[in-house]
Design brief:
Three copies of one chain form a homotrimer. Chain A contains three helices and 22 strands. Chain A is of the alpha/beta class. In chain A, helix 1 links the parallel strand 1 and strand 2. The longest helix of chain A has 16 residues. The termini of chain A are far apart. The interface between A and B is medium-sized, with 36 and 25 residues.
């Protein structure tokens, strides 16, 4: 398999590295704006990665998508990777279920126990976290982050850079625009326009 | 394994066909009131299925249970299948976990990553969608549809033709009557009488 | 593997016994304050277990953690097991995913389809029920019960004897004190002090 450079040094990067290892890739160093507490070797950040890219078969994007801010960082890094023609393989857990006809594009990350139903399309650099479910024929554009236990019904469409929070539910057939944030545990029954934020209701003690 | 006729031509039918294929069944044609965009051969609808039933070892019911209306359609089709003495095997994903002592009756469909706990009973033609959980000793009567990520606690009982929405939670020990609809993401802590509808609270932007 | 005494005679005890069997342990008898309808042999309760402990390699704690009361019972039984120097192995489903660097302490029970992310720590006698997710670097202290489909984000910390209800969501980084009860389907976005109870909002018909 491939020798990959890990871009990111936090907890999500550890999860990406674990899955990459399970499917036979080798990761022995990472690039981040500052050193983390990773056992891997810190080799600097973007300038150093640009210099060193010949040492690797590709890059694994290890920045999580947990907020509007982190989605924007991911968006910028994807642009940088594309500008520098750096290849990013999809990284898919062997414990995920990718059904017949489903397409997983380059740079996508799919965590343990995710189910991608028949004929769904997971766009470039989209991130499906643990136990997320993507319904049949659903389309995720580039850099959509789907958090753990989130459910997206069949025939839905999620625009680029949008974030679906943990345990959120998107009804079948719903269209969500670009740069949307759906908060943790929210339920969405109809279309959501680009750039909107849907917040969860707080439960009181 | 068996050669099955698929009844239904939409997205859910594709999911049923995929699982049936994974466990070794053969499906090469479907029956629906109108042709869909399936790669399988459309052979007509109920009259044609009645004529052709000798060509198959049984039928896989590929109509999803996502609304009161679709549950009623499933109910009528089950009656038609019974009237015509057509056999419907249970179709259970190899990625589901069916625990010791659990019973899965004819016609039931169990999707990927479902867990059916010890000594639960899944009634005829009940439908457990992706990552649904059925607790120990719980009884689902005929044609209960349990949507993705729904949780039904132990020692519960769900009446025939009822629908449990995606990510809904039914507390342990609760009894739900026939023809009930529990909406997406609803939490149910006590008994629900027959024919009731429980609606989700909407989250606002 | 080991010969275990099962402590508890209800539905959860059946689930623990099933998983113990899947990983090669032998359970042929149980101890409970009164006989249940288990096919196993009822050998009495704590006095009898104390007498008979030499017959077993250890004890599997088969009392579920579904309420403040049952968590208190588990807490007292754990104290009794410790006082009597009875060993309790962790019991982990072969269908769970325990990621690299994660630690599962003695007496913990991990059900089917659970995911414990990298470098998480599951404290003594903690109980992770079906499809629960524990984020990276998260710490569960002793006797934390995490119900089915609950999600605990990365870098969280849950205090001893606390109960996280089914489908509840705990945001990443949140600290929850000891003896807390988070109700079914609740979403928690900030710290919760010791001994608090967070109740779900009811959905109306």
């Amino acid at each position: 398999m491939a020798k990959l450079a890990l871009l990111g040094g936090g907890g999500f990067a550890k999860e990406v590295a674990e899955v990459a290892g399970l499917i036979g890739h080798t990761i022995d160093s990472y690039f981040a704006d500052k050193p983390g507490n990773s056992p891997l070797r810190h080799r600097g950040y973007l300038e150093e990665l640009k210099q060193a890219k010949g040492d690797y078969d590709g890059v694994a994007l290890g920045i999580g998508g947990v907020s509007r801010k982190s989605q924007e960082i991911r968006h910028r890094l994807i642009g940088w990777l594309d500008d520098n023609a750096i290849r990013c393989l999809p990284i898919v857990s062997p414990r995920a279920v990718i059904c017949k006809g489903a397409i997983v594009e380059d740079g996508a990350f799919i965590a343990h126990n995710v189910v991608v139903a028949v004929d769904a399309r997971i766009g470039r650099f989209s991130l499906l976290n643990t136990n997320a479910i993507i319904g049949h024929d659903t389309i995720l554009e580039q850099n959509v982050a789907v958090s753990p236990l989130a459910f997206i019904g069949g025939n839905a469409k999620i625009g680029r850079n949008s974030l679906i929070g943990a345990s959120a539910n998107i009804l079948q057939g719903v269209t969500i625009g670009e740069n949307v944030v759906i908060g943790i545990s929210c339920t969405v029954l109809g279309p959501v326009a680009a750039n909107k934020t849907i917040l969860p209701q707080l439960k009181r003690a």
